[in-house]
Specification:
Strand content: under 5%
Shape: globular
Number of strands: 0
Order of helices and strands: HHHHHHH
Helix content: 55-70%
Largest sheet: none
Radius of gyration: 14 Å
Length: 123
């Protein structure tokens, strides 16, 4: 997990057919994201967002795991470079807690030029 390419490979390997085999190992090694460089935070947060995407899209009954990942992603630093990842984290948080807020974030992403991301987000 020290090699940044390993993090990217992990993120790209999360699919619905292997989700049970791919556990959020990075959460054990990198407990507090803001202690990492911005580049590493971006890569690690992408792993978490991809995991949440697959959980929500294909495994609607996975709330416990999702909230564990959301809690981990909340440790991202508050930095403009991580703004989109923080918004996606909020989106997934609101998917489970406040549907109207989730729709609002989806609309903001669409209007901010992230139409493809907005359109692909699971409900």
């Amino acid at each position: 997990m020290n090699d940044e390419n390993t993090i990217v490979l992990l993120s790209n390997s999360i699919r619905k057919d292997n989700l049970n085999d791919v556990t959020p190992l990075v959460m054990m090694k990198y407990k507090d994201l803001k202690e990492q460089s911005l580049i590493k935070q971006r890569k690690l947060a992408t792993v978490g967002i991809n995991y949440l995407y697959v959980l929500r899209k294909y495994f609607m009954d996975s709330d416990k795991v999702a909230f564990k990942i959301l809690s981990w992603l909340e440790s991202l630093a508050t930095d403009p470079e991580l703004c989109l990842l923080r918004e996606l984290t909020l989106y997934f948080h609101f998917i489970y807690t406040n549907d109207d807020q989730a729709k609002g974030i989806k609309l903001i992403l669409d209007q901010s030029g992230y139409k493809k991301i907005s359109d692909d987000l699971p409900d």
